[in-house]
Design brief:
The protein is mainly alpha-helical and about 110 residues long. It has six helices and three strands.
């Protein structure tokens, strides 16, 4: 896990399950920065109800750590490549472009304002 992600998580006001989900996403993202694991599988691994995954992911989205792409229950999850990356610089730049294209404008604006 990158130093910036650790600091971001330390400063976030998340419940314990939120931190655990962030760590699971970071682990599952591997080199791609993308998580395809179904919410039900993540919930089982964390010992929580699948609906809790959706609520926690909303919190992580507000912190700019992760972003859902697709439906709210089983869509793809992007882990912010600014905080998490294990590839070369060219691929990271491409991942940041994909991340930026999939971020809702209001969340980008609120983080920079």
């Amino acid at each position: 896990m990158g130093r910036v992600l650790r600091m971001k998580l330390r400063l976030a006001n998340l419940p314990a399950d939120g931190y655990r989900l962030a760590l699971l996403l970071e682990e599952e993202a591997n080199y791609s920065g993308v998580v395809f694991k179904p919410f039900g599988d993540m919930a089982k691994e964390l010992g929580i109800h699948p609906s809790r995954i959706s609520r926690l992911l909303t919190m992580l989205e507000k912190e700019g750590i992760a972003q859902r792409v697709g439906n709210r229950k089983s869509g793809t999850i992007l882990v912010n490549p600014t905080y998490h990356w294990r590839g070369n610089a060219t691929d990271q730049h491409k991942a940041i472009e994909v991340w930026s294209a999939n971020r809702p404008y209001n969340l980008i604006q609120s983080k920079t304002a």
